[in-house]
Amino acid sequence: MATVTIYSSDYCPFCVRAKQLLASKNIAFNEIRVDGAPERRQEMMAKSGRHTVPQIWIGEQHIGGCDDLFAVARNNTLETLVAQ
């Protein structure tokens, strides 16, 4: 089973939505908060090439942000990616 990692911020409504989607599908995830942690945000930016949160990975595959996660869920591939 692939590990899901989400870089997030406490005050980000898109982060909340992404975490709610994962929770609704009983998909466990590791959350890395970037609030007040510039080294974590720099790590996220270096890995993703993006500066906005959330940034989500399933295993080594970068999914992207909240809209990207919802697109994967709509395409019925989210569970398949997590199961790998």
TrEMBL record:
The keyword Ion transport belongs to this UniProt entry's keyword annotation: no
Disulfide bond found in the keyword field: yes
A GO molecular function held by the record: glutathione disulfide oxidoreductase activity
CDD domains recorded: GRX_GRXb_1_3_like
Classification via SUPFAM superfamilies: Thioredoxin-like
Keyword line: Cytoplasm, Disulfide bond, Electron transport, Redox-active center, Transport
Gene3D superfamilies from the UniProt entry: Glutaredoxin
Domain GST N-terminal residues, every copy: 2-84
Pfam families: Glutaredoxin
BP-aspect Gene Ontology terms: cell redox homeostasis; cellular response to oxidative stress
Gene Ontology annotations for the cellular component aspect, listed alphabetically: cytoplasm
Role played: Has a glutathione-disulfide oxidoreductase activity in the presence of NADPH and glutathione reductase. Reduces low molecular weight disulfides and proteins.
Family that this chain belongs to: Belongs to the glutaredoxin family.
The protein, known as: Glutaredoxin
Species this protein is from: Marinomonas algarum
